[in-house]
Amino acid sequence: FVKFMGRYGQVTSFLSLIFSSIVFPFLIRKYGLRLTLRVFPTLLVLATIITFGAVPLNLTALFLCLTLLKATTYSIHDPAKEMLYLPTSNAIKFRAKFWIDVVGARVAKAIGSSINTYAGGLDQIVKVGSFPSVVTACALWYVCYRVGIEFDRLVREKRIVGLGDERFERLSTIEDMSAYDDELSHNDGELDEDEDVENDGPERFDDEFSVSNGEEAGPSIFSNKCYTTCKSTAFLP
């Protein structure tokens, strides 16, 4: 068992290194984030069908599927998932990461452990766990499909999720977007019209994001630099 787990860790680490250094950059540049997000769910659906349907309880097939899925999770799916936070404010990002990384991950592991405990052994795990596994894999694929489309729409429209429609701002740099998020959080989600915004550099805010002299902030959209970055990494056509 120790030797098996050692080999499992070695193969997973090696594949993760190859995927993260070569495969992930290629997928992002060639196909964009929308299609890159679907790589892991697609492999998960195929692996579930193979290990539960085609060759159940086959150790070699299980080993290959687990190493491939684990490496893909670390090097492709997780980085792609983190890039989804680009068109979001800091407040939304922190809330989403709490529910996904803390609550969602723990609940999912608890449900999986409950299924394994209920099965009680390898003979029953195929009967008990096959249906939940297939349903979960298909649900993840659909979620990634919808999220990828929504991400492309937000980037095209240069919008930031989490800033109310009346508080959308056009910003000139990614640093300005962070500064605006900090200002928004400090004032409990709204800009204080009586507070002056410091100018840390030339053209800190463009004409539509002027809060000096009592002017109200203009209509909101995504950061121009963030938009350019997304376009350069093939998020946009």
| Gyration radius, rounded | 23 Å
Low-confidence stretches: 165-175, 188-237
- The whole-number mean of residue pLDDT values reads 74
What is the overall number of helices? 7
Secondary structural class: mainly alpha
Distance between the termini: 49 Å
Total number of strands? 0
**Net shape:** globular
Helix content: 55-70%
- How are helices and strands ordered from N to C? HHHHHHH
Strand content: under 5%
- Biggest β-sheet, characterized? none
Descriptive overview:
The longest helix is centred in the middle third of the chain and has 36 residues, at 122-157. Mean pLDDT is 74; it is low at 165-175 and 188-237. The chain has helices spanning 2-36, 39-54, 59-83, 90-119, 122-157, 174-186, 224-232. The protein is mostly helical and 237 residues long. 69% of the residues lie in helices and 0% in strands. Helix 1 packs across helix 3 (59-83), helix 2 (39-54) packs antiparallel against helix 3 and helix 2 (39-54) runs antiparallel to helix 5.
List the helices and strands and how they pair.
Blueprint: H1 2-36, H2 39-54, H3 59-83, H4 90-119, H5 122-157, H6 174-186, H7 224-232
Helix pairs in contact: 1-3, 2-3, 2-5, 4-5
Would you summarize the structure shown here?
The chain is mainly alpha-helical and 237 residues long. Helix content is 69%, strand content 0%.
